[in-house]
Structure formats: C-alpha cells, structure tokens
Amino acid sequence: MARKSARTQAALHRAPLEVLATGVPGLDEIMGGGLPALSFNLVAGGPGAGKTTLAMQILFANASAERPGLFFTLLGETSLKMLRYQQQFSFFDLDRIGHDIHFLNLSDDVLNGSLDDVLARIISEVESIQPAFVVVDSFRSLVRAQGSQNSEQQLEHFVQQLALHLTTWEVTSFLIGEYESQELRNPVFTVADDIIWLSQVADRNSVVRKLQLVKARGMPAMPGLHTLKMSRDGIQVFPRITEQHRDPRRRTGERLSSGIAGLDEMMGGGITVGDSLVLAGPSGSGKTTFALQFVAAGLRRGEAAVVAVFEEHPDAYLERARSFGTDFREAERNGKLRILFLRPLDLSVDETLDEMRKQAREIGATRLVIDSISGFEMALAPTFRSDFRESLYRLISAVTAIGVTVFSTVEVLESRDRLQLTGYQISFLTDDIINLLYVEISGELRKALAVIKMRGSRHSTVFREYDLTEAGVLLREPLTDFDAIGTGMPVRHFRSAWPAHPGLTEREVLLLQTLIRTGAVAANKLAALIGSPLTDVEGSLDRLLQLRYVVKDGTRYAAVARAPGM
Predict the structure, then answer these.
(1) Please, are residues 290 and 321 in contact by the beta-carbon 8 Å criterion?
(2) What is the CA radius of gyration of the chain?
(3) Distance (Å, whole) CA 85 – CA 1
(4) Fewer Cβ close by (within 10 Å): the C or N end of the chain?
C-alpha cells in the first residue's frame, strides 16, 4: 500500500514536458503534439530529401530576438549559398537574419583543424550568442573532410560531447546528417531524443518524399511513413490518418436525397448522413450524372458540397450541371461549392485527403463526391497504388467521421456471366452500393440499376430501368418480368398480378403493379416511385378510380383485389 502511495505521489509531481510548435503543417500531429523543448534532435536521410529546409522552417517558426537561433554550416554548402536558395521559401524573413537567427560557416575550422577544434568553435559561438535553438548542418561531412585520420567512432564521440554541451546549455538543437536507411543501427542515433528520417522514393517517373519519426522520447508519436511535399511555403507533412478522428460526429439517422425521383424510395428513404455510397457501373452508364444530381439536390437545400474530379475538367463539369436547373458557378461564387481538379500522377492519398478535409471544413460541406475512384487511383504516384484499398479505407473513414456523406463513382468492366459489383474489392469499406449495368431487351441496349447494399436500412431489391435525359436521370418501370438481368441478357417471364385491362395504358398498368407491391401510398410518392410527373400520375389515378381498379382513402390510393376477367 505504501509503495502504491509513493508512486501516486511521484506521478503528481511529474515535471511537465514543454512542447514547441514546429511551424511545419502536419508535423506536430505526427510528433504527438509538437517538438519537446530542450530536446536533441537528429534530422537524417539521403541528399535532396528536405533535411535543411525542415530544420530551417522549424527555426524560423520558433526563434526570436529574446530566444535567438544559431545555424552552423560545415562543408555541405556555404552560408551565403544556402541563404540564396532558402530565402525563396515564404517562411524565410531576410530582415530577421542577424537578429533572431544567426548563420555561421565553419568550413575553415573543419578543413584546417580537428574535430576537437570544431567542437571548441561551436562551444565558443554558443556561449557568445546564447541561443535557444542550434542547428548543425551537416555533421556527417566532418568525417569525409578529415579523411582516414578520423573514424566513425571519433564522430560518435564528437556528437556525444556536443550533445552533452547542448543539454547543459538548455537549448533545443538539431543535427543534420546524410544517412541511408541501412545505417539506422549506427551508435550515433542512441544519443538523439528524436530522430526525424526523410527519404525520397523513385518509382518509374514519379518521385515521392516521405517522413518517418524513427524515435520520439516522451511523446505519443504517430508511427509509419508519412508523405511530405515541398512548395514555395516550405514543407508540409500529410499524416497517415487513422480510422478514429479527433472530432467524430454522432450519427442522427437523417437522410439525404439523391436528387433522383424514385431512387430515394428504393434506398429506404435516401442516403444516411455520414454514409459512404459507391455507385458502380460501366463506361457511359451515367455515373457522373448521378453524382451531379446528388450535389444539385444538396445545393437546392442550402447545403455545401465538395467535388473531387479526376477524369473531367471542371469547366466541362460545370457546363454539364447547367441542365439540372442548378447553377454550380453561382454556388462556387457563394462559397457553397468547391471543385477540386486532381489529375497529377504523383499524388498521395493523404495529400488528397488533407485537401478534401480542408475544403469541406472551410465551407461547411455535408456532401463530398469522388468522381471517380478509378481516376483517383490513376492520379496517385505508383508507390501508393499497391496499398490503394487500405489507403482508400483510411480516406473514407476520416471524411465520414466528421459528418460528411461521401458519394463515390467507380468504373467496372461488363461481365456476361455474373453481376459485377464495385470492383477494386472495396465493397467492405462502403455503407451503400448502387450498381448500374447494361441489359439487352428486344434487341436494344438499355440501362438498369439495383440497390445492392444499404447498411442498417431496408431497401428495394428489384432491378429498375432508367434513362439519361437532358434533365438528368429518369427512372422507369421495374424489370419484374425478367430473369437473369445481372447477365446483361435477361429472359422475359410475364408475371403481371392480373391480366391488363384492354383499355389501360402502360402507365396505368405500372401504377397498379406498383400499388400491389407497396400497398396504400400517396400520389406524390407513386410519382416518385415510377419516375413520372405528378400531374400525369394524378390523371391516371382518376381513371383507375372510375374503373374501380383502385380506391382512395384521404390522400392515399390502394389497389382493389379483382377476380380475373372482371
């Protein structure tokens, strides 16, 4: 009992760990909240991976006149040459040089002296300037410069002595060194509190930079390889997003309209908010049109949406949307719509996800369209395609966790021997699946759809024909008189509930068959189910009432059981 009390007492007096913001987007999240103050950090990796830029960006984010930074350059390049290139980044402020941040080149000390002389010079300058941050770039060049008279063991001793002094001075320090991955067992790595490993991966015509936090003392770091990108703003890191997210929203069961008359009813009331829906179909089956109507339905309700386009230019996308009665260009101007045109061949999934989440948060989007998953995969750098399914799972999980409903399209190849579902073997990571297919009826190629999956919801199990019109998708009658529809070559078997009256029109027969399946429903719901205008449906119902095929109770209509021949 006494031992437990002592442990509890020690925990209460545990010294807090001060954490610094790195100023590198995404890096704080990977490091578990930021960079520990007074830590001794090693930034390692091959040439051109971004080591110097990373250290420089952290330095400019933290140094000040009261807490200056000191940057030592050895033999990699002179201070003037380094500054010439580094000042091209937006984080670099030339007015702060000599005040907040000081640069010293020790090339002469390295070439004309020993490691002890170099260490003495560093100690002298640190004691003179009294910085809060110190960077040494690149300590690995010391061995190469001094030749055979100095070994890796001597370099290890040099780093240990330098680390001891830096710790005594209570500064946050960075040593930059060129190392290959197979050298991770080098004893010099045991000295560092944190090891940030940068690398470049070349795959065919694509080059991708990655970051790994190999070692992190006292921080809940995020494991794995993370993509990084260099731009005019410096380095940005894209963390590997896990399934759980910081701000998950509770699901309410609310439904979103697909924007297509009759389809919501087939799905049991629409798409559940926060679901991921995949619309799968062959080329030319209208996948983009379905997606556009989903976006248009949200805009008409005052919702905001993000559309990630991989196969079509945004101008063509916007022009096609005009026919649906919703001005997407106006929605863009009003901040209700963002269209991301993502076609480069060196994207990473996490970079794409970061942009999608950023745009969704900025406009408060409730709907996200990915058109298409097939184009998305082609836009990725080859190195990311091998684990595309796993990456897509992380992407969808992260977006739906913040309450955004995802509508993805995917192209599948036609198969005459079985019904193709989503392709890519990704059906396990989606909540809802709608399948589009071509069928041959009476020597004519027609389009049909079926709701394959609705997680946690009842849905229609019938195939239904549809047309692509100037106004969008128009659902036709269910294909209840056909077998083997999934093969694309269905066989007709008439299964009418009763013989059609010689005087009934095709729409009237369809209304009767629909009422038999659904029971009593209102006229507007019947119109949505068969995809016909309400005025036409009401006219047909009036005639069916006169012929006593249906009865009306308030606003609801129901079929009347009749004996054959009546």
Answers:
(1) no
(2) 33
(3) 62
(4) N
Torsions phi, psi of 44, nearest 5?
-125, 165
Measured between alpha carbons, how far is 121 from 555 in angstroms, rounded to an integer? 92
Greatest alpha-carbon pair distance for the chain in Å reads: 113
Rounded to whole angstroms, the Cα distance separating 550 from 424 reads 47
Q: Is the pLDDT of residue 528 over 80?
A: no
Per residue in 402-456, pLDDT (tens digit) is 889 999 998 887 654 444 444 555 566 689 999 999 988 877 889 999 999 998 7
Backbone angles phi, psi at 166, to 5 degrees: -65, -40
Could you tell me which residues are beta bridge partners of residue 235? 230
Q: What is the pLDDT of residues 272-301, one digit of tens each?
A: 999 999 999 998 899 999 999 999 999 999
Helix (H, G, I), strand (E, B) or coil at 179: coil
Contact 359, 305 (CB under 8 A): no
CA atoms within 13 A on the CB side of 252: 9
Beta bridge partners of 370: 308, 408
Given a cut of 70, is residue 265 above it in pLDDT? yes
- Residues 264, 246: Cα–Cα separation, whole Å: 32
d(Cα 538, Cα 396) in Å, to the nearest integer?
42
d(CA 17, CA 39): 10
List strand residue ranges (DSSP E) for 166-275, in order: 172-178, 194-203, 206-216, 225-231, 234-238, 255-256, 271-272
- Listed in order, strand segments (DSSP E) in 346-426 are 367-371, 405-411
Entry field: residues in the chain:
566
Instruction: With CA atoms as reference, report the closest residue to 67 among 4, 128, 130, 21.
Output: 130
**Residue for token digits 């991770």?**
184
> Which pLDDT tens digit goes with each residue over 130-156?
999 999 987 766 655 555 454 667 777
pTM: 0.69
Structure tokens at 223: 């494991």
C-alpha 260/C-alpha 528 separation (Å) is 9
107 with 118: CB under 8 angstroms? Answer: no
In sequence order, what are the beta bridge partners of 277? Answer: 407, 432
563, two tokens:
């004996």
Which residues make beta-bridge pairs with 172? 133
List CB contacts of 516: < 8 A, sequence separation 6 or more.
497, 559
Where are the alpha helices (H) located in 301-450, listed in sequence order?
314-321, 328-333, 349-363, 373-379, 382-385, 388-400
Residue 179: closest CA among 199, 202, 150: 199
Apex CA 467: angle with CA 463 and CA 471, to 5°?
Answer: 135
Torsion (CA) 107, 112, 113, 119 in degrees, nearest 10 = -10
Cα–Cα distance measured from residue 478 to residue 381, given in angstroms and rounded to the nearest whole number: 43
What is the Cα–Cα distance from 540 to 537, expressed in whole angstroms? 5
Cβ–Cβ under 8 Å, residues 152 and 143: yes
